[in-house]
Amino acid sequence: MTNARRSDHIEFVRLGGHAVRVTSLTLDEQSGSFTLVTITRGSRDAELLTDLINQERVELEIPGQETMTVHASDIDRREFGEGQSAITRFSVVLSPGEHVPPCPPEPLEQSLEERIAALEVEIRELRAMVNRIDKQS
User: Fold this and answer.
1) Rg (CA), the chain
2) Which of 27, 48, 119, 130 lies 20 to 30 Å from 7 when distance is taken between CA atoms?
3) Average pLDDT of 107-131?
4) What SS3 state is found at 8?
5) Mean pLDDT, to the nearest integer, of 11-31?
6) DSSP three-state, residue 49
7) Residue 15 burial (CB < 10 Å; 0-12/13-18/19+)?
8) Measured between alpha carbons, how far is 96 from 137 in angstroms, rounded to an integer?
9) Distance between CA atoms of 94 and 58, rounded to whole angstroms?
10) CB-based contact 75:90 (threshold 8 Å)
């Protein structure tokens, strides 16, 4: 189990320079990540927050602490209602550092013999197609 410390006394944080009202802010002391729970009203505020947390990195300013660069590693968004009367609850895990998407594996390099064999198979298939077309004509 991880050590978590709740910061209930914080009303607002700044995320990417925008003030975000805090419903709950919990620090996981082992990983250094924060779980931020906030509620927005209206679709515009929800979309702004969605855009902020979908960035690869965003500045998080917590009163009394140094500004840090974080990325959203887990997002739970629940919307109730529609349009400007909608209420959206976000629970976001903000992890320190920049999000680095996993690199796709590099394709395996084929040997010259393997490439020639694959081309020979393709040539045979093309010749068979040409022969079928010639017989149909």
Assistant:
1) 27
2) 48
3) 83
4) coil
5) 92
6) helix
7) buried
8) 68
9) 9
10) yes
Q: How many domains does the chain have?
A: 1
Residue owning tokens 């529609």: 82
- The answer to whether 88 and 79 are in contact (CB under 8 A) is yes
Residue 40 lies in a domain: yes
> Are the beta carbons of 8 and 24 closer than 8 angstroms?
yes
Say which residue the tokens 């906030």 belong to.
38
Segments forming the whole domain that contains residue 31: 4-96
Instruction: Report the pLDDT value the prediction gives residue 104, as an integer from 0 to 100.
Output: 56
Report, as an integer, the average pLDDT of 118-137. 86
Confidence at residue 40, expressed as pLDDT on a 0 to 100 scale: 93
Handedness of CA 127, 128, 129, 130 (dihedral sign): positive
**Domain containing 47 — which CATH number?**
2.40.30
Q: Looking at the domain assignment, is residue 130 inside a domain?
A: no
Domain membership of residue 91 (yes or no) is yes
Residues in contact with 114: Cβ distance below 8 Å, sequence separation at least 6, in sequence order: none
Residue 129 lies in a domain: no
Q: Using CA atoms, how far apart are residues 19 and 8, in angstroms rounded to an integer?
A: 16
